Amino acid sequence: MTAPASAKLERLLNLTAALLATERLLPAAEIAAKVAGYASGKEAFRRTFERDKSELRRMGIPLTVGAVPGSDPPVEGYRIHPRDYYLADPGLEADERAALHLAARAVRLEETSADTAFWALGGLPPGNDAAPELAVIPSDENLVVLYRAICERSAISFRHRGDLRTVEPVQLRFVRGHWYLGGQDRHRQAWRNFRLDRIGDLTAGPAGEFEPVPASPGDLERPPWEIGEGAAVAQLTVDAELADWALVQTSEGLRHERRPDGSVWLEVSVANPDALVDFVLGLLEHAELLGPPALRELLLGRLRACAAAGGETARPTPPPRTSSGSSGAGPESGRRAAAAGRPGHRTLTSAERMHRLLQLIPWVAGRGGAELAEITERFDYPADELLGDLQQVVFMVGVPPYTPDALIEVEVVESWVQINFADYFRRPLRLTPPQAITLLVAATSLLGVTGDSALDRGLAKIAQVLGVNATEALEVHLGAGGSEILATLQEACGSHRAAAIRYYSYDRDAVGDRVIEPHRTFAHDGAWYVRAYCRTARHERTFRLDRVSAAQLTDESFEPPREPVPAVSWEPSADAPWVELALGPAAHWVLDYHPTTRRNWDGDTCVARFEVGGIAWLERLLLRLGPAARVTGGSGIPADPGGSAARRILARYGE
Question: Do 198 and 263 fall within a single domain?
């Protein structure tokens, strides 16, 4: 711990205390004269004070700025209003607090941690071992701004696919692996949903601009071909081997009929024809779109274009693998990599130390004292730094005139810490919007899976303190997979019993029965998975649950793994096939959905390399991309995979 860092920490704490304790706006000149820690000299004070104000705002400490009453000419003054600073006590019961901690361990918003939010709630409980991560939800740069706008009822403006929109935001929803904003579109006078990764140039207006319109129910949970304006009715048949899987994907449609050979006839509602064509082509030659004629012709036109664009696949020498693209690892891979490069101990910055102190001081003072070891564990504060800061920094913090009765009193007797006379830090600092959204997302996500009553109560109390209706403002759907199948496999994980499943291997386009030893379930990118030892393959495998049409516990038990089981959604082998595709502008969307190991740009064409899990996967991808993608190289793949698949399917249609 360096002297300058401690001096900065002491000055920031003194500034915060002075601005909290005052009932009027303090001009900068008075702060310079009275608050301890500032150097003499007008210019030196100005530079330091500007940095300190920015530091406080970054930590979420709300500064009130305004003209000092009676000043002429007007002089700017500062204070921290207690109502904006203090976090109200949510009154959490022990089981509610434990449920919230469990949620924060089970579900994490990408690149964030809920630990800092819990510091304001009394810190992390001692001995709080990390539970296996259930899901990592992708974040978005606009989440915090939108959450604040929803809470404050601020209308927002943004560009969505080039169009300027003004929306009254009501709800954030995570569905099918993506974040959506729901609200009243002022230009269209109707409720609309917008995918956050398609929003740009976002700005928010003043608070209290509108009364929220109730959320439009159910749109995003429907199949993609049902989402849109207007609707037609389409008919299709699916062969016996994929009939069960197709029924799960379509929620059994408007009507369906099982035929004697095991195939199924389906009738579905269609508002987005391209989405239904994508779905039917995904079934390859195992399905046929019967009508209406215009929709059937749309599908056939796509197939004819793919067949005509076919050609011999080049086989260049495989280039060395690079790390410039995204990986195919599951939700824990980034966290494991970060942990591997993280030293066992690092020195906290002055901002990190201050954030912890502002939360632990009221906790220790309110309890009448605490053991040093417990404070260290609850607030993730290295013991040597904590002891030094308590005795050398906090001990010197107070309010002007800094007489003994105006300073915080810190006593450390052996390992017992006691803090007195810290009235201006009597309650913890409120949660910042990033902390709030992180905690709310975790709790909402797990509540949707478990329905735990303690978590429900705890979430409601936290939401009330934050001034938001959590059930209206936030929805999180971790993934599709069938609640009964998920419950069966979660029971298998807990009881260490083998399960018999019927599984559709999407990559290989094959349905088969397997017996697996489930180790853990997890959600990733809008789908549920189970990581298990497959007795058929005699290897660890990951199974996507919306491709499991049946699951049943057996009477056989198994010995669980000794080491933690990673949540890996897909891991290609070292000799896995790969393909290189030249992607035109109409195919660039695939870069957001599928991991690549290399990308090179030539104008508006991207040449990208993809690992291939199975030839059927590649065929589907090429059928969906059509002429916008061209195979330029590969290894372990057949010649003209897209054209060959198109011709097979056309044969089913009599062409």
Answer: no
Is residue 250 within 8 A of residue 266, CB to CB? The reply is yes
Give just the sign of the alpha carbon dihedral 616, 617, 622, 623. positive
In sequence order, the β-bridge partners of residue 520 are: 531
| Residue found by looking up tokens 């304006």 in the block | 229
**What range defines the domain where residue 162 resides?**
94-121+134-221+431-476
Residue count of the chain = 655
As a whole number of angstroms, the distance between CA 476 and CA 648 comes to 40
CATH code of the domain in which 629 resides: 3.30.70
Burial class (CB in 10 A: 0-12, 13-18, 19+), 55: middle
* Residue 318 lies inside a defined structural domain of this protein: no
CA angle (455, 460, 464) in 5-degree steps: 150
Residue 110 and residue 211 in one domain: yes
User: What is the CATH classification number for the domain harbouring 487?
Assistant: 2.30.30
Beta carbons within 10 angstroms of residue 139's beta carbon: 19
Same domain, 190 and 101: yes
Same domain (yes/no): 102, 213: yes
Give the Cα separation of 348 and 124 in Å (integer).
Answer: 18
pLDDT digits (tens, 9 = 90+) for 455-508: 999 999 999 998 888 878 898 888 875 678 999 999 999 999 999 999 988 888
Residue spans of alpha helices (H) in 470-589: 470-473, 483-495
